[in-house]
Design brief:
The structure is a single chain. The chain has eight helices and seven strands, in the order E-H-E-H-E-H-E-H-E-H-E-H-H-H-E. The chain is of the alpha/beta class. Strands 3-2-1-4-5-6-7 form a seven-stranded parallel beta sheet, sandwiched between helices. The radius of gyration is 18 Å and the shape is globular. The model has no long low-confidence stretch (mean pLDDT 94). Pfam families: adh_short_C2 (PF13561). Belongs to the short-chain dehydrogenases/reductases (SDR) family. Keywords: Oxidoreductase.
Length: 261
């Protein structure tokens, strides 16, 4: 699965799953623009990865239209065109439904869902223009979650936003199919990022997570990156409008499983 000669934008690419995706795409030959609000982490990522290929960083709040416009423009200025987009930026906010504020609901929805719309539309417009100039159609991957379907009581805006991401993926795929642009999503289960770091040192939490994970372990960010790279590559040339759940088997589970101590 090589991505030689392709240019990708990865939002939320300075940490966690996003950073793993950046590393994998660069390893596969792509040039990558990292977009993130964490400037220190973005600079560190470029320094750590740049020896393996071309990677740059742009500070951007991808829930803001002007920042998205500037991100696309800077990527084109740096690399000439954009062939791939990974809408990975995402945040969580834990609160009981009765206590959740409008501001926190809007903040999560803006980062997780609105940004995928803004970036997807801006990059797709560029892709369509480039197709008219002879380029091959590009590909877009949105980061969804098993929580597009499985709800968590105290993760109201996160669950709602991920349900929206999966529907947005289908709408984008149908709308852009006429141009040959493919749009898919990845739905991670429990992945060992900073958000799950507490699980490793908490036996009760670890048991709770693993009891609903048939493969019996927490996933690694590199495993989500591998699925993303596949969907962006020509190996997935007949795949569009799909959400692939990389979740250790959790989605079809309707019971808990024993956990080895």
């Amino acid at each position: 699965m090589r991505l030689d000669g392709r240019t990708a934008i990865v939002t939320g690419g300075a940490n966690g799953i996003g950073l793993a995706i950046v590393r994998r795409l660069v390893t596969d030959g792509a040039r990558v623009m990292i977009a993130d609000i964490d400037e220190a982490a973005g600079a560190a990522a470029v320094e750590a990865i740049s020896g393996d290929g071309e990677v740059r960083f742009t500070a951007a709040d991808v829930s803001e239209r002007l920042d998205v416009h500037n991100l696309v423009a800077r990527t084109i200025d740096a690399f000439g065109s954009i062939n791939a987009l990974v809408n990975n930026a995402g945040i969580v906010h834990a609160a009981d439904f009765l206590d959740l504020t409008e501001a926190d609901f809007d903040r999560v929805m803006n980062v997780n869902l609105k940004s995928a719309f803004l970036c997807g539309q801006a990059v797709a417009r560029h892709m369509v223009e480039r197709i008219g100039e002879g380029d091959e159609p590009g590909s877009i991957v949105n980061m969804s979650s098993i929580n597009d379907t499985l709800a968590i009581a105290n993760q109201v805006p996160y669950s709602v936003s991920k349900g929206g991401v999966s529907q947005l993926t289908g709408v984008m795929a149908l709308s852009l199919a006429q141009h040959g642009i493919r749009v898919n999503a990845v739905g991670p289960g429990s992945i060992m990022t900073d958000m799950l770091a507490s699980v490793a040192d908490n036996p009760e939490l670890r048991t709770r997570v693993l009891s609903r994970t048939p493969l019996g372990r927490i996933g690694d960010p590199s495993e989500i990156a591998a699925v993303t790279a596949f969907l962006l590559s020509s190996e997935a040339s007949y795949v569009t409008g799909q959400t692939i759940y990389a979740d250790g088997g959790r989605m079809p589970l309707n019971y808990t499983v024993p956990v080895k101590e």
